[in-house]
Amino acid sequence: MGNSTENTLTSLPSCHNFNGLENAANLNYQKTVDLFIGAACDEETQTISRLALRWHKIYLSSALLSTKEKEETTIALKPHSLTGTAEVILAVCKSMGWKEIGFIHSEETKYNVHAIYDILSEHVDELKINVFLQTDGHTNTYTILHSTRVIFSFLTIKHLGTFIKTLKEKAERPLEYPIVHIDFNKTTPQSIYDTLDNLAYEETNPITVARLRKLHKHVSILYNIHDDQTRMEAFAKKA
Predict the structure, then answer these.
(1) Rounded to 5 degrees, what angle do the CA atoms 163, 166, 169 make?
(2) What is the pLDDT of residue 70?
(3) Mean pLDDT of all residues in the chain?
(4) Which residue ranges run through the membrane (predicted)?
(5) Who contacts 211 (Cβ-Cβ below 8 Å, separation ≥6)?
(6) What value does the mean pLDDT take over residues 6-12?
(7) Which candidate, 25, 80, 128, 159, has a CA 20 to 30 Å from the CA of 121?
């Protein structure tokens, strides 16, 4: 047998009250580690990326932010779940014959959407994304409604409910806008529809409530079941 090199893996917690920053410093100065792996949260990734550059250490990160904002010594790993979601979106569009679509997102989901957008940008010959805008349901809606007919929503449920209200008020034929909502929180479809209907009930006019609920039924829900750890474990046991 040839010479073997023994490596040590030290694991410390992160992503809780920024404890990853302190533990990264401990690993660098006390353990003198060769590289860092993690943390998988955006709140700490950018700072650790800068520290790793200063310390001349490699930093492997699967955090969404690291695909967009990183230093030279940071290697960004795109999560498989986002690649899978992008592939599902592409498959849905092919099945429906959609060549041009729009992405709308909330502040809370922007890093997920940017990663998916980057993946789909490699398929411009198959799919064109005409709209890529952030909205709270009110902002940018004129551009959205006049630039695309097929809308993929990466909004929070509250923002989605507000956007549907705006769609009802501003669009001449709101039912002509297919909306596919991408859920990253693993919320059940029924819970999403119930939340949307509860937002509709805030309206005092019963006719408005009925019209909003009708629009809610035309929203399709999509999420990647491979992100669901329980289902993945069950599938593994079957195998």
Answers:
(1) 155
(2) 63
(3) 84
(4) none
(5) 168
(6) 74
(7) 159
CATH topology of domain 81-226: Rossmann fold (3.40.50)
1-5, 21-25, 226-230: which is most confident? 21-25
Distance CA 154, CA 42 (A): 18
* 116 pLDDT higher than 60: yes
Neighbours of 161 (CB within 10 A): 22
Q: What is the largest CA-CA distance in the chain?
A: 80
Tokens 């860092």, located at residue: 36
pLDDT at 184: 76
Report the alpha-carbon distance of residue 75 to residue 57 in Å, rounded: 11
CA distance 58 to 232: 31
Q: Which residues, in sequence order, are CB contacts of 128 under 8 Å at separation 6+? A: 99, 100, 101
The full set of domain ranges for the chain reads 19-76, 81-226
